[in-house]
Amino acid sequence: MKKNTSTKTLNESKMNYDLELLKDMYQKMLLIRRFEEKAGQLYGMGKIGGFCHLYIGQEAVVVGIQSAQIEGDSIVTSYRDHGHMIACDMDPKGVMAELTGREDGYSKGKGGSMHMFSREKGFFGGHGIVAAQVPIGAGLAFAHKYNGNKNVSITYFGDGAANQGQVYESYNIASLWKLPVIFVIENNKYGMGTSVNRSSAGDNLSDRGKAYGIKSEIVDGMDIIAVRDAAIRAIEYCRSGKGPYILEMKTYRYRGHSMSDPAKYRTRDEVEKIRKTSDPIENIKILLNKMGVEDKALKDIDVKIKSKIADAAKFAQDSPEPSEAELYTDITIN
Amino acid sequence: MTIEILMPALSPTMEEGTLAKWLVNEGDSISSGDLIAEIETDKATMEVEAVDDGKIGQLLVPAGTEGVKVNTPIALLIDSTELPHASIKNIADKPYLEKEKIAPELKMVKPITLEPNSSIITVREALRNAMAEEMRSDKNVFVMGEEVAEYQGAYKVTQGLLDEFGDKRVYDTPITEHGFAGIGIGAAFGNLKPIVEFMTFNFAMQAMDQIINSAAKTLYMSGGQMGCPIVFRGPNGAASRVAAQHSQCYASWYAHCPGLKVVSPWSSKDAKGLLKSAIRDPDPVIFLENEVMYGQSFNCPDNEDFLLPIGKANVEKEGSDVTIIAFSIMVGKSLEAAEILHEKGINAEVVNLRSLRPLDLDTIINSVKKTNRVVTCEEGFPFAGIGAEISAVVNENAFDWLDAPVKRVTGKDVPMPYAANLEKLALPQVDDIVNACSEVCYKD
To answer: What is the CATH topology of the domain spanning B2-99?
Structure first.
C-alpha cells in the first residue's frame, strides 16, 4: 500500500497543473461550500426540515474524484450527499428545492436531504441507511461489467459505515467477480459522535481490503491534487478490468454530524486548527495566487457563486409544495 | 442371518426416490462404507453406503425403478458364507415384496387429465421454464444466489440454467444475503433485471434492510426516477421437520410494505405465469414459493408467452355457501377441504389469491357477496397476518353481506416445533379448514 504523507505545504510540482482545471475545481468546491452554508442558514430559519448533513470541509474529496471521471460513470453515496450532487453537475436549484420539500426538488419533495437521485447525471443517491449504498454501488459496477462498457462505479461511504457487515460482503463479491468499483471511504474521523479509534479496530480502515485482495491507498483528502491523482490511479485500475480499489480519504467535517449535533465530542480548537492549516479551498486559493491568478479574479468567482446560491435559495422557497396527489404517485411503476 | 437394506431418506422432505443404479451385484461381498447404489431424489442424486458387512443376497428393487418409498426394503444382505437367494426359499415367504408396490400412488394427488396445449410438469419445472424462457428473450435477465449455478440449485429449481446460459448470466454468490441482495438491487438500478434466489426466505431476513429500504422505497423517494426491476424468489413457509428458524411464512411481512409486489403461486400454471410476469414487471417482486410444492405436478400451458397478471386472484372452485381464501400450499388443502365439505352438504368456493399485494379485492368481495361467509387460510402466524388483512377489507367493503364473522385458519401462534406431532399441530390442516367452514355455516 502506498501511504501519502504529503504535508500541507504546497509542492512546487503542483504548479505544473493545468490552470483551467484548478480554477474549475476551485469553483466547484466553493459552490459546494456556499451551498452548504446556505442550507445551514435555511435550516436555522426552519425552511429545511428533518435531518440535514453538511459536507463543509470535505469538498476536495468529491471534487477531486469527479475530475477524474468520465461520462457514464455511476456515483452513489450516503446521506451526506449535497456535495456529491453538485459535483455531478446537478442543478443547485433542484437540490435546494428538495431540501425545502418542494415540487421542483429532484425527488418532487418526497425524498429530502438524504434521498436524491439523478439518473441523467449518473447520481444514484443519496441513501439514508448507513452502508446500504455500498452493495448498491457494487451492483452498479456489476451492471457496467455485465453491459461490457468501460464505466466504473464510485461508491462513497464514511468511517462509521466502514464497520457494517455489508461493506465486507460487498468487498468479497466485488473482488471475486472483479467488479469495476472504487470504494471511497470518506474518513472524517467521527461516525456521528464516536471517533474512529473508539469504533474501529486496527490501524487503517483501508487495510481491511487486504483480506479480500483489494488494492488500497490512504490519501490526504484535504489536498485536492492528491485526491485527483489517487482517483486517476484507482479509476484507471478499475477501468482496465482489474477489479475493485479502495481509497481512504482522510478528511474532516467542520460542522456537526447533522444540524442537530452539538459536537461536544471534539474541541473547538481541533476544528479551528484544521480549518486554519488544511482547508482545501484556502489551499488551492494560495496555489492559484502563486500561479498568477489575482485576488480580484477569485473574488469575482465568489460573487458569481454567491449569486447562483441566492437564486437557488429563492427558487427553493418559491417552488410550491408538492400537490396532494403526489402522495400516491411513484409507489410502484405499474 | 438376513438383513434388509431399506430405502433411505436423504432429505427432510423426501418421501420417495428413484433407485437409479445398483453399484453391486447379487453375490458381491461388501463391507460397511462401500457404495452400493445411486438414488435420485427430486433434489439430487446421492450415493448410498452399506452400513453392515456381508454379501448381497438379493436385489429386491431393480435399477431404474421410480417412486420407491422411504423404508421400502431394496436389497437383502446375507452372511458371507451363505449362497445368494439361499435364505429366501420362496419370494412368497416375503409378503411385503408383493404387497409393497414399488411405485406407490402419490397420496392426496388425483390422476391429472392432460389439458390441451399443456404439459403435466412439476412446480419446480414450471419455475425453471419460466426463468429460462425469460432469459432467452431478454439478455438483461440474469440469476444470482447461493448454489444456483454449479450445484444446479439447492432445490434444483435452477437446474440446467448454467449449462444453457453460462456464467455471465448465472452467478453463484457467497453466503451473504445482505450483500448480494444489495448488489442485485444496484444492478437493477443500473437497468438490469436480476432474479435473486434466496435458498429459503428464512435467510432473506439477513437482507431485509436492502429489500425494504432500498428496493421498495427508492422509487418513491426519487420522485419516480429509480425503478428497481428485480425478483426475489425462493421457498417460503414450512418445509418439513426443520423447526422454527427454517419454517416460517413471510407473506405478511413483505405484503405490509408499499413499493413491493408480493406473489405466491400454488400450481405449475401459477408458477410459470406469475414468475414470467414478475420478471417482466418494472417493480421489485417478492416471489414466495413452497418447498413442499416443488415436486407436485399440474397441467401447465406450453405457450412461451403465457403470463398470469400480478394482482389477480383465481377462483379454483366455484361454490355458494362459503368462500375459502388461500394462497400457495393452502390452496391444495382448501380444495381437499371443499371435497369433504361437499359430503357434508356445504358447497365451498375456493379462491387462490396468487398475489398478496396488490390484493385482488374485487374477486374477494364478489365471492363474499355470493357466499356471505369467509374463511381465510395461511401457514403464517395469525397476528397481523394475511387473514387479518382480508378480514379487515371484507369488513370495510362487504360488512352488510356477511352472515357470519370472518374466520381465520392459520399456523399456530408459536415458533415451529421440531417434533413431528407438534409440527403437525402447529400447521393448519385440512380438518381445521373443514371445521372453520362448518362453523361459519353454523353446521356441526
So the answer is: OB fold (Dihydrolipoamide Acetyltransferase, E2P) (2.40.50)
